[in-house]
Amino acid sequence: MRWRDPVLNERMDMVPNGISPGGEVWLAIRREAETALARDPLFGRSLSASILDHPDLGSAVAHQIGERLGRRADDREQFARVAREAFADAPDLVDAASRDLQSIAVHDPATTGWLPPLLNYKGYVALQAFRVSNRLWRQGRTDLALLMQSLSSDSLQVSIHPSASIGTSVFLDHATGIIVGAFVVIGDEVTILQNVTIGRMSEAPDRAPRIGRGVYLGGGATILGDISIGEFARIGAGSVVTGDVPDGCTAVGVPARLTNCPEGASAYQI
Length: 270
What we know:
Shape: globular
Structural class: alpha/beta
Strand order of the largest sheet: 3-6-9-12-14-15
Largest sheet: 6 strands, mixed
Order of helices and strands: HHHHHHHHHEEEEEEEEEEEEEEE
Radius of gyration: 19 Å
């Protein structure tokens, strides 16, 4: 996987290429866990339950989903089991979990390894919980899918409707107050900061925003309506966007105006 930005490609050099769901990333995570255990034995029980007792990345992520969503021991085991079954039946979900972890490694300058985001970044867990709920939704298990959305909203402050569609290598940064409504489409390599809302408008209740590849959504941004945000566009913090944003443009303000557009795209209020 390569990005347009050469700086990101340099950071990506730390990420193994061609990763399989049970491959190099999982081995790197286990090595980090073993090193952390040797350095801090008091941390060992938690590390064993979270990482070392699991055979692969899918199992470890399922454990995190259960721990974050379940309020009681029985609930935690139930949600972990649902997630494990989804990962076992759909290896592409595990691949997505691996790619999302890679995206954090690339985009977050505070990240120096694989273990911290897997254990501590609630946006990462919320995104993987969404992927499981989305599979349940598509299987017709809508009640369970909506329950997972509700619990993610309560426990993680991230509410993603299970009918939404989200690509891979997505990073929910800080991940508090994020709302993604029904039928929203989000492409690959998108970064979403805190307090972002993406949803429909009453004028077109059956049509939701479509967010292109590589888009950056700044904190507090609101994206509403039957609109498209083009590839590698940037939405400024606190902006309200209700019209299309062309590829590569920046939208800022309330209402948003386009600026810093590539040659051939004009700046105007949207």
